[in-house]
Amino acid sequence: LxxxxxxxxxxxxxxxxxxxxxxxxxxxxxxxxxxDGITSPNINREKGENHIRYYLKNGAVFNSYHKxxxxxxxxxxxxxxxxxxxxxLGDGWFxxxxxxxxxxxxxxxxxxxxxxxxxxxxxEVSLPLLMGVFNAESASKLDSxxxxxxxxxxxxxFMKGNFTEEAPNVSK
Length: 172
Prior knowledge:
Layout: E1 6-10, H1 15-32, H2 45-58, E2 60-66, E3 69-79, E4 88-96, H3 110-124, E5 129-130, H4 139-148
Helix pairs in contact: 1-2
């Protein structure tokens, strides 16, 4: 694959783009990701699409395309540090199809290029950027990836228990 064949664009906030991203993530991101190494929580399409709309409206979404087909996407937007009133950005999602994760024509990997777009947006709005990893299988690989791209590790997510088929009743 030639790097020149892949283009990255900032996505406009339309209902069509929200649906397109939702389809892509549901068909590709979700089956590949598990939080406990075995299962992934069930999909709530409406909740997912609302999440996507939020980032389209309030942040920046960058999609990468190869011959008209979406092959990667990253979203960044307002991130609430619950203990501080200082603003920050966080990622809403970050995903590249497995067959597009390698290097292109000797240049940087597509995943690094997408992160570069996210970092450029963070620099434009002068805010720090936090990127999360919610996949048990790729956590250590992504530690290296983010380190190589200038990020520092500031914590982690730990999980105990399993996701069940039926969501339990949780009182508010």
